[in-house]
Specification:
The complex is a heterodimer. Chain A is mainly β. Chain A contains no helices and 11 strands. In chain B, the strands form 3 sheets. In chain B, strands 2, 5, 6, 10, 11 and 12 form a 6-stranded mixed β-sheet that branches. Classes of the chains: A mainly beta, B mainly beta.
Chain lengths: 114, 114
Amino acid sequence: DTAVSQTPKYLVTQMGNDKSIKCEQNLGHDTMYWYKQDSKKFLKIMFSYNNKELIINETVPNRFSPKSPDKAHLNLHINSLELGDSAVYFCASSRRTGNYNEQFFGPGTRLTVL
Amino acid sequence: AQKITQTQPGMFVQEKEAVTLDCTYDTSDQSYGLFWYKQPSSGEMIFLIYQGSYDEQNATEGRYSLNFQKARKSANLVISASQLGDSAMYFCAMRETGSEKLVFGKGTKLTVNP
């Protein structure tokens, strides 16, 4: 009965490869997010989708492309991986309505680029 | 300019004592939300407590309470009766009106000593 799930949990790959991270939520939320946590533990938003529509697109290299096939899924595809992409990537979801907008996070995907 | 400032990179507390983790924020909005998350060494992000800018009372959730001082733009987390399991990174975050994203501080690493 996991609320927000991500696969894989660990991803080790070579520079230049293309990889995807999948995220699914079963909370019935209509907004989903991708965050990146760097080696210093700093968390920064990358993207957000609401009802499959992109609503936040921070300054992220266009090698990163989110895709939301439906409200419950938000995948992250990364092309031409670079060393600096090594980080933990968190998916999150929330209801959009209301001032109180707690975000539920997935367990994270630790990406290591060699 | 940083929107969320956590000035304590690391804090130590004895088991069973109370500890305050500092958070100051910067916004010109009148309506916003403040959140605290816990990240244990296992890596997941766990929501702890929320304070709305219009809430007149300080938020409390079990052993967690939020010392909200609006005029000073501070939202400090107080953990009472610390337990060894409280050892973790703690992140303060803010969501401004009309924005779907959480902006995080750099975190405070709390260590609870037996």
